[in-house]
Design a protein that fits this description.
Blueprint: E1 14-15, E2 24-25, E3 40-42, H1 47-53, E4 58-64, H2 69-85, E5 96-102, H3 109-114, E6 122-126, H4 128-131, E7 146-147, H5 154-165, H6 194-211, H7 220-233, H8 237-253, H9 256-261, H10 303-315, H11 323-337, H12 341-352, H13 361-386, H14 422-435, H15 444-448, H16 451-463, H17 484-495
Parallel strand pairs: 3-5, 4-5
Antiparallel strand pairs: 1-2, 4-6, 6-7
Helix pairs in contact: 2-5, 6-10, 7-8, 7-11, 10-13, 10-14, 11-12, 11-13, 13-14
Length: about 500
Amino acid sequence: MSCSILVLFFALFISVSTGSQRGILREISKQDGEKPDFSVELNATNFDSVLKDTPAPYAIVEFFAHWCSACRNYKPQYEKVARLFNGADASHPGIILMTRVDCALTINSNLCDKFSVRHYPMLLWGPPKKFVGSGWDPKQENSEIRSIENGRTADILLGWINKQLGSSYGFNDGKYENEHLQRNFSDPAQIARAIYDVEEATSTAFGIMLNLKMIKSGTRASLIKFLQLLVAHHPSKRCRKGSADILVDFDNMCSSEILSANNEEADSCSKKGALGNYQICGEEVPRGYWMYCRGSKNDTRGFSCGLWVLLHSLSVRVEDGESNLAFRTTCDFIHNFFICEECRQHFYDMCSSVSTPFKKARDFALWLWSAHNKVNERLMKDEASLGTGDPEFPKVIWPTKQLCPSCYLKMSDENSKIEWNEDEVFKFLVSYYGKELVNLYEDKELRAGGETEKAVNEELVASTNAVVVPLGAALAIAVASCAFGALACFWRSQQKNRKPRRSWN
């Protein structure tokens, strides 16, 4: 069983094998004056999975042959348009996935036949999922896949796109001039795009831990508990799977003895070690861009926003019996692994001020919401005095009245302290970070807990080489109604008779 799930979004650069090897995200530096590719190279092995999982509502597939001189001449024109929509520096990410398929490769022969490729280059346009598991016949009526008959130059192709979308994209559009990012704070549907930012933040946080060698004997238990929390409650299916893969083999790679040795073996818990071979949310994450959390400036929002969304999404998914464990796990994770010292200390102080254990999931979710607003209040003052805030996304007390009018109790004047209806706030948090967050993620198993996912986790638990401090969270997807406490007993009992297993990597 593979350690990671192939998911490929608007990768800036892609290397695709002609065999069974999965596509691997890579960066290609300019060499000998060669310009980088922005379109995504697909082949028969990854065609369906890439188009199925992209968040873009539209896709263009160029069918070409590498020996075709006309195709070689057309490529710079196509790449000029692809630069607007694909990659970390795209002006309008999340709108169109622009891809290419080389029909001259044997592996792609059947794929090109399915789409009735009779000339090169040939461009097809349509919703990405309409390309999955199907084909295209030019005689077919009412097909959502359409041929772009005239796109022979970049100007003509972009003009065709603008006509279809009613847009006015231009080649001089800057990196952050992207109207797909709606700034209407009263629209709760915006959070749906954040599922991709949560994946990005999860992967980025994991990468920081490895790069800075932050996994030590003193932080090991904290990471294990956080991974267990992710396995049980992360809103992304592939992040739950990736976290479980790491958790299964964690004890073999990063045992207390190894970390205490302080030698070369301890480097297994770093980017260069064995743990560096794991991708917590899949091989093509991080992708290098943000959607819901995209700021109007390069150094605003992004990772910190994505991490907050992750924490909120976890807080509304835990059960009452695990609320205090989730709270302590979150506090320890931020204290041990968040590298902004001032923010880390502020969060730790808020955690330390809680003297009574949480007994309800509602209490944890509301505490995190309140803590987030306290952080925003502090940053509002700092950004106002220093001018460092994002003008398009200023820090605000959240949720706004427009987003949740029922969350506010009647106040005497604008300057008085806000009085909250916490019952309504909790309902809002559950809806916003629960149901709405995964609306764009159209995988039914992700939202409903399908049989496939249950089977995967049952197999995982049956054969796992469990970690030293297991709480049983890897079972929580299959038996979501169980609390951490009950699962802990099961996992501990399994350790006594566990069997060695091969790595899933």
